[in-house]
Write a structure and sequence with these properties.
Layout (H helix, E strand, L loop, with lengths): L1 E6 L5 H12 L3 E3 H10 L3 H11 L6 H12 L8 E4 L5 H13 L6 E6 L2 H9 L1 E4 L5 E3 L18 E2 L6 H24 L3 E5 L4 H12 L3
Parallel strand pairs: 1-3, 1-4, 2-3, 4-8
Antiparallel strand pairs: 5-6, 5-7
The structure holds BIS(adenosine)-5'-pentaphosphate, magnesium ion and zinc ion.
């Protein structure tokens, strides 16, 4: 099964990705997680990506597309994957198709998680993140059992740098500018499903699952 998750910053892509990938046993590919891991390791890619991410901008397409191409060409992704945070504009969507065509593959389903702005801002304001292992929490909706420490590795939880309010507003603006052409593109292909995202994470997951049973 090959799935794409679309949605605004803080819409819940990472949260749904985790549930879907565990349930269907498919690998999760998050470009944001890849960049954050590279930033943590201070690799050349991480150093390059950091300035874009921390200012709320997109990392340039050539860098991002080549990471996705390299990732999808690894054999553990041959039978299925879930893309979270890619594509982010129509250029990336078309490049993704080209990468998949070469492998005689195609996307089965694209979900757009649709969440209102006030809920997005509440989700982002309460998000806490583990800089060590990347686990994500929410102080109200998904708190760590260990308070301000990570359940997985015990590290102190923190805010994501790009979750500062002024940066979030810039991220949202970029999203709102680039999402419509992607939505039209996948609608035309007949694989887009919009999901009401102003709901409990479990209910959103059940809703998504109901569309995946047919795939
Ligand atoms: P990325 O990490 O992908 O960030 P994003 O798209 O802005 O999305 P988020 O990760 O902030 O939110 P999410 O939708 O995953 O929500 P989550 O599940 O965490 O990208 C970061 C940056 O990397 C980009 O800005 C860009 O610079 C760069 N980048 C990445 N991909 C790129 C690309 N393709 N091209 C170029 N640049 C790229 O949920 C949020 C919070 O809400 C959590 O606390 C969660 O617990 C909570 N929550 C989730 N669902 C619910 C629910 N239903 N009810 C209540 N709380 C909920
Ligand atoms: Mg995410
Ligand atoms: Zn951790």
């Amino acid at each position: 099964m090959k799935i794409v998750l679309l949605g605004a910053p803080g819409a819940g892509k990472g949260t749904q990705a985790k549930l879907i990938c565990e349930y269907f046993n498919i690998p999760h590919i998050s470009t944001g997680d890849i960049f954050r891991a590279q930033i943590k390791e201070k690799t050349a890619l991480g150093i390059k990506a950091k300035e874009f991410i921390e200012s709320g901008n997109l990392v340039p397409d050539d860098i991002t597309v080549s990471i996705i191409k390299e990732t999808l060409n690894q054999k553990q992704y041959n039978d299925g994957f879930l893309l979270d945070g890619f594509p982010r504009n129509i250029y990336q969507a078309k490049k993704l198709d080209l990468i998949l065509v070469e492998k005689r593959q195609f996307i089965d389903k694209v979900f757009l998680i649709d969440v209102s702005k006030n809920i997005i801002l509440e989700r982002i304001a309460g998000r806490r993140f583990c800089g060590q292992c990347g686990a994500s929490y929410h102080i109200k909706f998904n708190p760590s059992k260990y308070g301000d420490k990570c359940e997985v590795c015990g590290s102190i939880l923190m805010h994501r740098y790009d979750d500062k309010e002024n940066i979030v507003l810039d991220r949202l603006e970029i999203y709102n500018k680039s999402i419509q052409p992607i939505v039209s593109y996948y609608k035309q292909l007949g694989i887009l499903q919009t999901i009401q995202g102003n709901a409990d994470a479990k209910d959103i997951f059940y809703n998504i699952c109901s569309f995946l049973k047919a795939v």
